[in-house]
Write a structure and sequence with these properties.
The chain is 53% helix and 8% strand. The chain is mainly alpha-helical and 210 residues long.
Amino acid sequence: MVQQRPSSEHIPIVRAPGARDHAGVVPAHFIVRVLRARRAPGHSSPHLLTLRSSADYPLGMELPDLKDDPYLKVLRPLVEAYLAFELTASRHIKSLRLTPSQFDVIATLGDTDGLTCSELSAHTLVTKGTLTGVLDRLVAKGLIRRDSVKDDRRCVKIRLTEKGDTMFRNTFAAHIAFIKPFFERALNQKDIDVARTLLLRLRDSFQQEG
């Protein structure tokens, strides 16, 4: 669904251990620092993203000359686009009187017969550690309910209430209508197909390494 957030209730798509801001994404000042970094004269500059274990990159290691690194030329616009999207999308979601986490859960539950907590965790960007709290607040708002599964009392399905379904149909439609013009202004259909293919390829590359 929509990939919202800056919120501590979420795990971001772009991660940089040891260089996080409050949203957990690569902060702009970190990218600027890396872009300005220089290796001492006489040293070679290896590729930035060589596939090795994270143990091969100890803290305090000397940075290579990254001025013309082709991967950083992609990284910075990618992160800046993500941050700009997050800021704009989150502001609109909050204007609907929901947090980004709550919106993510409601949008994911919409048009379903309910999902287990494990399924919600897999299909939203809400972390497992904060999902229970998000669900508790949605229950308190009367937007979702927890139902025991008939054949397995240990399993609970999370479903939208009638009020929650109305919220889903109103807020999801409003948010899509709000976000769509930003994409239409920047991308035609061919661009969208290419961008999706490249982003999925990049995502899969990072997931394989992780």
